[in-house]
Write a structure and sequence with these properties.
The complex is a heterodimer of chains A (about 260) and B (about 260). With about 260 residues, chain A is of the alpha+beta class. Chain A is about 35% helix and about 10% strand. Chain B has about 260 residues and is mainly α. Classes of the chains: A alpha+beta (about 260), B mainly alpha (about 260).
């Protein structure tokens, strides 16, 4: 280990990766917000996570200052967990699938910021708890628990399974919320992810039994009506979920519930 | 589960207010505000055929039964609600079109921007005519000459008021067309992306038509000529300028 560190330090690699990283020491220290620049040795097929791992090995800025290693979150490294969402070169995406060769083919600086729509925990780590609370708010689950055997549920057509599967790929990564102009500190818009979950579970034959409860959750303050139709969500979604379709389907369902449920009841 | 009570709660309960306000804002932009704008631009376009048909249309409107109720109930109050709630909505968005340069994101910005421009323009327009009428400073029968004078006036050779009207009408037409698209989305009329693209084309054409309708009238008041006439002459080479009431008024009244 010591040998490899030494060789990496001493060898003057032909190529360096230039990182500009937005840092913050702790959630309660907004004054510590600053940019720090690092140059790390290039490795073949490097992604932003492996570049950050190099920073962790030698946390020294370009102006030679020894600093605390940069904190970030990453789990699966294959774009299915949603943990490593960051704003890279101004666009929100997963750091694990952000390849250095594509971002900086000629050694351009790569800027890395934490997502701006969530509270920063430290450096690039943010707290996405609001997304999980929103899943609770819209009851993004299927009620199956009971005191007695309920028997098999209703069958679902192959066609509907095909339609529902892409919706289920959501990994709560937060990219759609980050890119949404309607999600910000002066609004409480729930955002596309939770609305998509309402469509997913309302389509499920057993989930549909609690359809109105989920719709009512989205017919409150910060619900589906707050969508500004900027449609950035569907463009940035790393899982290519048809989020705009989900919003418009749920919008139609809430319109029906408004006209035939609330008004005519 | 306590949530069942929420499902059965009455329509106007507090947690439903935000949703209803949003829906009402979206609806009020189409009817009555948008519908009135179409009617208004159509009525004003009668000026392009001369003062007589314009004055007759104004007379018809002022002699409508319950005109004050209609004016406040169908135009001013819905317009005021749509404008004020619209400013509130616009203030709650954080623009990011420089980062995410998608066309719909630009539309999101332009919808809010055109709304604010339209708000300023309509406020000025109401002050100039409706406000002066209420204050008793102008008779409705004098709207035609007043429009001629205001829109043909130039300062340093530039017809500022006419330009302000063209910009204001463009903002209104865009806001209306894109607003109809948004209405169809948020009320669940156009659900698929394909239907949304179709709606964008249809409402885009409608917006252009609405803008042209207003532009033609402004050009008429500003120059005594209409865009259709100019095009007609341009296309068919008929040189003689069309005589019209506006031009005649301006020459006869220059005492």
């Amino acid at each position: 280990m010591a040998d490899t560190e030494k060789s990496a330090k001493e060898a003057t690699p032909s190529r360096l990766v230039h990182l500009k990283i937005r840092r913050q020491d702790a959630a309660d220290k907004p004054d510590s917000k600053r940019w720090e620049e690092f140059k790390v040795p290039y490795l073949p097929n490097m992604n932003v996570i492996s570049a950050l791992q190099q920073v962790q090995k030698f946390p020294k800025t370009t102006d030679g200052k020894e600093v605390a290693p940069v904190c970030w979150e990453a789990v699966c490294l294959e774009e299915v967990c949603g943990a490593c969402s960051m704003v890279i070169n101004g666009r929100v995406r997963q750091a694990c699938s952000a390849l250095v060769d594509q971002l900086a083919p000629n050694g351009e600086p790569i800027t890395i910021e934490p997502m701006s729509k969530f509270p920063v925990v430290r450096d690039l780590v943010v707290d996405r708890a609001r997304m999980f609370n929103d899943l609770k708010r819209v009851k993004a689950w299927i009620d199956l628990d009971g005191t007695h055997e309920l028997g098999p549920g209703p069958r679902e057509s192959q066609e509907q399974q095909q339609e529902r599967y892409p919706l289920s790929r959501c990994m709560t990564c937060g990219c759609c919320l980050e890119a949404c102009p309607q999600v910000n500190d002066s609004s409480n818009f729930i955002g596309p992810a939770a609305i998509n979950q309402v469509r997913l579970f309302n389509m499920h034959p057993s989930g549909a039994m609690h359809k109105n409860q989920r719709l009512d959750a989205l017919m409150a303050e910060g619900g589906v009506a707050d969508c500004g139709k900027a449609q950035n969500c569907v463009e940035v979604c790393p899982k290519e979920i048809p989020l705009v379709d989900s919003i418009s389907v749920v919008a139609r369902d809430t319109t029906k519930r408004l006209l035939f449920g609330w008004l005519l009841k | 589960m306590s949530d069942h009570t929420q499902t059965d709660s009455p329509l106007f309960e507090k947690h439903r207010r935000a949703f209803l306000m949003r829906k009402l804002h979206s609806l009020s932009g189409v009817v009555p505000v948008g519908a009135f704008m179409m009617f208004h631009l159509w009525t004003n376009a009668k000026a392009t055929s001369g003062r007589e048909p314009f004055d007759a249309a104004v007379r018809d409107i002022t002699h409508m039964p319950f005109v004050v109720v209609l004016e406040w109930g169908l135009i001013l109050l819905p317009l005021l609600f749509h404008a004020l709630y619209g400013v509130y909505i616009a203030m709650n968005g954080r623009q990011n079109f420089t980062r995410y340069t998608y066309s719909r994101n630009w539309m999101y910005f332009l919808q809010r921007f055109s709304g604010l421009v339209a708000f300023a323009f309509i406020a000025m327009h109401l002050y100039q005519y409706w406000g002066q009428k209420v204050a008793g400073k102008i008779e409705t029968s004098q709207f035609y000459p007043a429009l001629c004078e205001s829109l043909s006036a130039t300062k340093g050779g530039v017809p500022w008021m006419a330009i302000a009207y063209v910009i204001g009408i463009a903002a209104c037409a865009f806001h209306f067309a894109n607003g109809l698209w948004g209405f169809c989305f948020s009320w669940g009329i156009t659900v698929s992306r394909r239907s949304q693209r179709m709606a964008a084309s249809v409402f885009g054409l409608l917006g252009l038509a609405v803008f042209f309708l207003g532009l033609n009238t402004v050009v008429h008041f500003a120059t005594g000529e209409s865009v259709t006439n100019m095009m007609h002459r341009g296309l068919f080479g008929r040189g003689e300028a069309a005589k019209n009431a506006c031009e005649a008024y301006l020459t006869t009244s220059s005492h």
